Each structure stands twice: as C-alpha cells, then as structure tokens.
Amino acid sequence: MNTYSPREPLLPSIGPAQPHSDSADEIRSGTEDLSSIAMVCDGILASLNALPDCPDATKMTVGARIGMILSMFSENELQARKDRMRITALKCDLRRTKEQLAVLRQEHFGQSSEKDRDGEPDIPDDGEDEEEEESQALVRKGKRTRRVPADIPIREVHHYPDGMNCCSCGCEMKTISSWASTRLVTIPEHVEAIRDIYHTCACNRSELCKENKPMAARSNSYIMHKRSIDPQLIAEAAVQKFFEHIPTYRMARRMKNAGVNLSTQTISNNIIHVAGFLAPIVAEFVNHVKSGHAPHMDETPLRVLAPGKGKCDTGYIWVVCRDERRWNPEARPAVIYEYAPSRAGAVAREMLADAAIRFLHTDGYGGYNGVRKADGANDGIDIVRCWAHARRKFHEAHIATKSPLAARIVKLIKKMYKVEATITGLPPEEREARRQDHSLPVLNEIHAVLTRSEAVADGALKQAIKYTLKAFDGLRRFVFDGRLEIDNNPVERCIRGIALTKKNSLFAGNHETAKVWAIYYTLIESARLNSIDPRRYLSWVIGEIERTHGDIDYGTLMPWHCPVGRLSG
Hints:
The protein is mainly alpha-helical. Among the domains are: 24-89; 289-531, no CATH class. It is 47% helix and 7% strand. It is built from 16 helices and seven strands. The protein has helices spanning 24-27, 36-50, 56-109, 130-140, 231-242, 248-257, 264-290, 345-351, 387-401, 404-423, 428-453, 459-470, 472-475, 489-505, 511-529, 534-548; strands at residues 200-201, 215-216, 296-306, 311-322, 334-340, 359-361, 382-384. The strands form three sheets. The protein has a three-stranded antiparallel sheet with strand order 3-4-5, sandwiched between helices. It has a two-stranded antiparallel sheet with strand order 1-2. It has a two-stranded parallel sheet with strand order 6-7. Strand 3 (296-306) and strand 4 form a beta hairpin. The longest helix is centred in the N-terminal third of the chain and has 54 residues, at 56-109. The protein is flat and about 145 Å long. The termini are far apart.
C-alpha cells in the first residue's frame, strides 16, 4: 500500500520567506521549513492516510491534485515577485522622470530662481520610498479653522422652523437652543461715487454786515488735485498689478461690468502719477538697505516696449535685499528695486556707492566684480557666493549623466543645509561656531573631492566642478561670519513677484514706466518681508501723504511703523 507521510511533502516549501531551490535535501527539510500552504496540504494527506477504508487510488488522485495546487501557487508566487520588482523599477523611472521634468521647467520658466522658500534644496535620499513621502504629505494635511478678521462686519440672520410660529395647542413657540455657522460672501467691485460739494458761506445780514467777507470751502486734495479719481482707488489698482499680478486691463473690464467707464490708460497714467509721491519713501528704503552688513543682490530682465521699433527692448530690474531675520530678532528687512536699461556692472557700482555694507551675497554674474574688494585693499566689498546655484549645477549634472560623483556632492551640500536649519534664530557667534564644527569639514571634503576629480570629469559635471572651484573662496566665506547666509535665496524670493507680473503683463510701457514698477515693488515687497499686508500698507502710506500734503518725515512711513495690516503667523 502506498501511503503519504506528512514529513515528506510532495513539493518544496514555497512560502515567501523560503529561498528557491531544486535540491532534494531542501525539498525534504522537515516540517519546520514548510510554508503554511504546504503544511495544510500535508495535513490533508495525513488525515486521508488515517482513514482505514480509503482506496489507494483516491489517495493517489488527491495527492496529485494537491501537488498541482502547490505547483500553481509556486508559479503565482514567482509571478508576484516579478511584478513587485517591476513596480519598483517603474517607481525609479517615475522619480527620474520627475527630476528631469523639474529641470526642464526650471530652464524654461526661470533658470536662476530657487523653488524652495526655506533655502534648503530639494534632494531626495537614496532608497527613499515615494509612497512614504505621499503618506506623510497626507498626514500633514488637515482642515484648518477658518479665521474671520475682527474688522469684517458680521450681519446676523436668524432662521426659524418654517410654519412653526405657533404650537398646535395655540401657544407661541420659543427658542430653546440654537447653533451658528459663519459664511463669507463678497461684493465684487463695490464702487461708490462721492460727490464733494464745496459751499461759500456769508453772514445772514450780508447787506448790513461789513466785518467779514464771504468764505468759500476749498478742496484739500493733494495727490489727485484736479483729478476725478480717489488715490485709494489707484492704490488698489497698484496692489492688484504688482502684488496680485493682475494686468490693468482686467481691472478696467471689471469696472466696466460694474457700470463705471474707467479706461486702462486712465488707470495706468494715474498709477504713474501716484508713484511720484512715493519716491521719497524709496529714498528712505535705499538708505536703510545700504547700511546693512551683508545684503543680497540680483537682477532680472524686463521687456520694455520700444515705440517706433516694432519690438521690445530688454532692460533690467536690479534688486538689493537686506534680510537679517535669521540671526537678528530685531531685524527690519527691506528690499529696493531699481530699473536700468543695461546689465553692465556699472549699475551695481552706482547702486552701492557710499554704502556701508561689508559683504554682498551674489550669484556667479561677473558684473559684480566691479564692487569686489581688491587683494590687500581696505575699501570694497567681499563677495559671498551662493551654494544654491552650485548645488543646481551638480543636480543637473547628476540628472544628465547619472554621475555618482555629482550625487555625492549634492548630498554633501545637503548636509550643510541641515546645519543651517538648526542654527536659525541663534546669535551670530553661535552660528559661526556651529558652522565651523559641522559645515567646515564638509566644505573641506567637497574641495578635496572636486580637486581630485577635475582632470577626469567631462561634460556637465566638469562645468559644475569648474564653476564651484573658481568660486570656492566666496562659497566658503559664510562659515567664518554668523551674519552671512549660505545662499542668495532671500533676494531670489523677492524676484518671484516680478516674474509673475511680467509674465501676465508681457512688458512695461516704456523705460519710465519700468522705473514706476521699481517704486511700487520696493514698497510692496518690503511690506511683505515685514509681515504687513501690502494692500493696507500702501493705503496707509498714501493716506498719510494725502493728510499731511507731503509735509511729513518719510522715515516714519516705513513698514515697521505701520499701525495696520499686521499679518498673524
């Protein structure tokens, strides 16, 4: 009689924890090596063998069927393992495609702009699971409580049950409980027309009274004298254009839909007119920024309409930002903008003339070399270079060439950014000490690796190495002064608004209009840096100039003196 022993399985164990083997010894390794499926099948065969009246043919048939089941399970398990490997490969391909797409977007929409507002580059670690990243992102999301500002008027509307004023017994019903919900509604383009009527008054006995002559009321309008538009309307138009990046013609179209005939040209001309009254405040911003220790500087192109040429000229808006919030709790950040038709280094020298600054954060543009301190000289400015620009070059080289060296440099740079995240808000002395303890060894390692690899590298990687080694003195300067930053991202963030405005508005009307852009951006972006609502700040500034007819200390109109518009959080 042929019997089947539970200690002699028909097929090898095929559980996920068992290695695949065709050897007879591993097939018969004992019940401790069997998978759960094989052990169940062996239990069935053992029970079948225990039946005294079961025919041998039935036992053989059942055993053969169980063998087929285990064989099919083995094949499915092998196919599932292949599928898991395929999914892992597809995830790697997807991550690589996303990185390539990010580089292409960066090259197309703004090659010299940083995506990360916090200054730390977005570098994925090796072996990082995308599903884990997505799950963490979902955990961070949540429904936040909607906050209603205290100055928004609240109109209460009471709701009662329909047709239930009186009870069926005839008694009047009363409220025993209630609940409330707040909803926000907007009144689009609410426009009021204010008719100012100026009276001339005289004594009731004017034919007999000879003491006083008739007196006439006079207009107190200063900014918009002899103009039929209120300056606050122009302040709103300027905020919509330069802060919300909405072209002027869209405001004119909404006004027309509200029944007000206000042309695009009228709005634009009055924006230029009001800018002339804001120019003295810009001078105060210039003095404040130029007295900083280590501001940031950059420039961005701007298309300017060239009448008669049939095309646009290319001008440049130069930006200087003073932002010391990472190490100075009493910092008053500010940024100034200045338009110039040229990108020549002479513009930078003119803007920084008579400045008291000691260091200047810049990118790799050679135009800033004109303000650099000469070797052995006391006058001039030390240039601090940007690690975000260097990191970008190695990141692009890694995407293009899959170079392990480029990936290694990117990871080393990320280590320095992690140090920066831990020293935000500390005094300059402590920031300098921690940088020298943790960032300086990383800098030395980067320099040693690049020096060894420069001769054998080629292509994009060689260009990245040359760029970094050439600028290495400026790149390592931040370690020795706690008041310096690791990159030039503060000014890069101040340029993003211009990028959106010039994308939506296409170009400035002329060179003088481009200077108006610079005036409004100085006020709006400086207010934003100080957590002041730019709309309320600009309205306050224009209101104070109108109230005092320009006879005011413009230093008192800086954002940190603004009594309204403070943003929470």
